[in-house]
Amino acid sequence: MEHSSSTSSATKELASLAMISGMDPDQLLELEGVESGSEPFVAENLKESEKPVEAVQESLSQEWMNEGDDGWGEEMEVNESDGESHCSDGGDLKRKRRKGVEEGPKIRVYVVVQVQRAHVIIAPVGKANESWPQFVMLRDDLPSAAAGDRRLQFGDVMELVEFEWRDGFAKLRNLSDDGNEKFWINNGQITAQATAVTVNIINLKIPSPSVGVILEVNYGVGSHVKSITVISPLLRLRQRIYPHQFLGEFNELSAVLGAVVLLDTVKLTRPAQWRIGLGYILPRSSTFFIGDERFAHQPVVAVGICLSPIQHQFPFRSDHGIELIKQGEEVMAAGVAACADRQEGELARFTVFVTPSAIEPKRESAILDVKCHWEWKEELVDMCKIWKQDQPIHMHLAGKIGAKPCGHGYVMSVKREELQFSYALSAQIFVLFQEAKNYNAWDDWNLIMGGKVQIKLKPLQSMNIFKDRINFFTDHQPTMMASETSPRGRILSIMLARSDQTNEPGISWDELAKRPELSRLVAGQKDTARLMLDNVPRICKMQAPPGTGKTDVATRIMLSILKENDEARALFIAPMNVAVVRAVQQMAENMEEVRWRERMLALFAGTGKAKYREEIAHIGSHLLASAVSAPQLLDTLDEEKKKVVARYVKACQDTPKMANEGKVVEILMAKEKRRLVFCTLSLAEQLGGLFSDFDYVFLDEAGQASTVQVLSMLSKFPGMKKLLITGDEHQLGVNLREVPEAVRDKCGLDTVLENLRVAEAVDKTVLSVNFRSHPVITECVEAAAYAPHGMQLIPGRSADQMNMLSGLTGIRLPSPGIPLILINQDSPMQPDPTSFSQSNAGQTMTVMALLEQLKSRFPGTIRVVCLYAGQAAEIGLMVAERINEDGEEGWGEIMITTSDGTQGHESDLVLVVTTSAGGGVHSDAFWNHPRRVNVALNRPRHGLIVIGDLIHLWRAEGVWKRFFEKAIKSTTVVGANYANLMFHRHAHHLNGKLVGADGLPVKALEFYDAIFKNPFPSNPSNSQGFRPNFGGSVVRGAGGPFRRARAQRGFARGMSGRGPLCWNCNGVGHVLSDCPTRRGGKGQNQTSRQRGGR
């Protein structure tokens, strides 16, 4: 067979080359057979599986070996005599050419670019030649295509000797081209122009195993698996695998979303440059492409899938073997690769070509207004996930071949619109001129600034952090570092559950109590201090619900360490900018308390400095810009570094989003030894090398830090001796909505607290005293979110200390002295027209009515927390309108956020807007997620108002029902009209309950009737429950004055059966036009008190 002769020829040539070079021929042959630089460890375990791995020796023809990497961009061909020597039967030249086309070279080199059911598609390696087809079908049963005991696969190379054109397929076109020719690809399958008759196999790739994860399972007719989409740390992008690529015992039943599998992969070395598609590969020289392919240099692609020899388990436990841990590292790398693939795909998808509608140019900067149109709402929503405020962008001149970026900037604002037949995203963008190497970018800039020119706007995100993490885990660096005998090795071994031994604290509380900075610690806070202040390397995990003083404890321990040890260095890290600000402020207070000083340095990302400008301004003296502006530092810098610092300081003042910390931090740390640094988690991971000498690391809000990110970050701290991780397992964790569903679980992409919870060698402490909230609020939050897990949340403040709302002059609370207001309102919710969120106009108007009453009376901070983003947007727009009408006084200080965006924040008074109303009962609904609800409910210090369809929330069971069960023992549920009574001069308390101007109780009777008489109409067997004593009889139909705002028509009434309400005198039973106090007493004579005989 021709293949055998080629193999023999290539072997002889390699042997000759080895002799000339003075190398061992066997060694050279062995090196030539290796396709990847490093194989995953699972290759060592293949003997344990039953999957046979047959190594197919690569063979190289003389022509193949004579071509170097640089030659593969050129057309490869041989002369006619050479071609005849490689053809088994000589062939018929007429079969190789289409009528009317001049005959070309007799033999050409092709490569497999797609594997289909009964054949493969091959494409030329070099440049296009009209005499030869771009895509050729090569049947599996073609004798000259035999590849031993396997099919041909991606990257296999051959000489095409004979082919036949397919009628009607000689010419193909790209999807974007006009014409009558057939498309080159149809439903993911490449269209062949010709059929191969004779080939000579030149090079067969040897597959290497790689751990992968199934991202999607696609079903076809009859619910059979049509294809599987997989990812591996080695792949350039996710790849589609078809049933004919299933290997060994892998079958349709093995195709499970998120399953860990073993992929056969090959590295494409020649040609070196490729376009990689979802189910195909193309040499970069190919004239056919869709446009969403990824460019890659010598990429790795999957050619088959089989079962993994090791059952994946995560989180790690002490009884897991090293093989399972190492495979887990590769699974984490695959999870990161899936995130990188998705992010890169979305960035390319939403690179847009637009013509700015308005331009405000300066010499080297401008503000652009652009608008993008989409046919489907899904596209608009997906674009908004990328195109959001502060998103960095690059600007190119469109339509110019080889154009380089001439500007960079960020998205200032985004607005979504619903049009008659489409959707639109309008964005305002700030751009700065950007120079380009060996390119005149200034001409492009001036052309764009002239207007009416189409531009290309590309959203930016560095992919380097993904690549670094992938390499970190595929190289098994965590397990290698965990084997070290250093303190860092001990800490990483604990993280990976390689140790199951904990050590008792080496210092007693009696010794620590003498330190003034620690004297105020209580209960679990003391335990944490003992663990962190001895000399034993360890991880201490502090479970800390909101308000329990975790930031105060961490900063006091840091302060004590620095005071006692002049050589110690402490690094405080948090995922959120606001948590870093809070820690700096807390440390400053603690230093002031003990009259001790240490310079602090606070580092933030550029977007953080802009977004939290007001909060960060409070710690301005500790910012990097202040530190590098000190004269004593500037005097020590050379001119180049002074320019770097000057540019950074100017950017912080003018365009903080564009300020880059990296180089400037390096300049500062090289000149000064900073012992106390605060920074965000992302910066700590990127700049970790600058903190290699820090021995004490404190990670706050760890619930929002993933295992892969924490492990990657900790590897940058070789001097680390202690690690304190604080967080709350019962609040929101890592935002997984942008993570592919298949890798959200068991891939290390969720909170690191999940890993630490089961790691036996982690020292664990619990804080349970809440110093933030009013005691009634604390007790309700405990019942809702913590008691089900066997945890306590003990009030640490008295009611008298937290009386900003309850002690407010003139306020009429539903229950006296209880700053907890529950408003039942079942007004319907509406879908947001430009997203998949929801809003509730009735609840919006109730919020506005409450804010109108409170904004000028309540002395503290007010925050509106919405479970739905659409609700937050609606309320935000209304508040903005009031600011435009009335000015910022009162309205400007009100904060409107979503529950997901408010973690880490707190306010004196919080209004929680639930939006959801009526409909089915869903215990696992978005608005009933226990962590999301917990975050919303535990933000307030002095007062909490909950607005929603409380009956609906109660019947959903879970966190809301537990909260209300506890809350209604202390307060009374009221209706939507309560805002009109909150400061009403005639409302008063009678027997501990609020009554209206008519002396009737202000109570949402429909709520009490529903939950006690018929709590579960669809399930009567569950209707029994506790029934608290409300103190006094409940009269059906009794209600306080009901003053319905004009904008609130259609609202659910807070009370029922009392007739209309007068807007003039608040009397019940008549309307304003009939009021006896108007028009000289000519209105209706019967007042509300006369009506009903009262």
TrEMBL record:
Which stretches make up the CCHC-type domain? 1062-1076
Composition skew (Basic and acidic residues), residue ranges: 83-93
- Which reaction(s) does the protein catalyse, per the Swiss-Prot or TrEMBL entry? ATP + H2O = ADP + phosphate + H(+)
Say if the entry is tagged with keyword Hydrolase.
yes
**Family to which the UniProt record says this protein belongs:** Belongs to the DNA2/NAM7 helicase family.
Entry-linked InterPro entries:
Coronavir_polyprotein_1ab, DEAD/DEAH_box_helicase_dom, DNA2/NAM7-like_C, DNA2/NAM7_AAA_11, Helicase_ATP-bd, P-loop_NTPase, SF1_C_Upf1, Znf_CCHC
Q: What is this protein called?
A: CCHC-type domain-containing protein
Q: Which GO terms describe its molecular function?
A: ATP binding; DNA helicase activity; enzyme binding; hydrolase activity; zinc ion binding
Q: Where is the composition biased (Polar residues)?
A: 1084-1094
> Do you know which CDD domains this protein is assigned to?
SF1_C_Upf1 (cd18808)
Q: Which Gene3D superfamilies match?
A: P-loop containing nucleotide triphosphate hydrolases
Region (Disordered), start-end ranges = 76-99, 1074-1094
Q: Which PROSITE patterns match?
A: ZF_CCHC
Q: Which domain of life is it from?
A: Eukaryota
Q: Pfam families, per this entry?
A: AAA_11, AAA_12, DEAD
What PANTHER family does the database record attribute to this sequence? DNA-BINDING PROTEIN SMUBP-2, DNA2/NAM7 HELICASE FAMILY MEMBER
Per the UniProt record, the lineage of the source organism begins with: Eukaryota, Metazoa, Ecdysozoa, Nematoda, Chromadorea
Query: To which species is this protein native?
Result: Heterodera trifolii
Q: Keywords assigned by UniProt?
A: ATP-binding, Helicase, Hydrolase, Metal-binding, Nucleotide-binding, Zinc, Zinc-finger
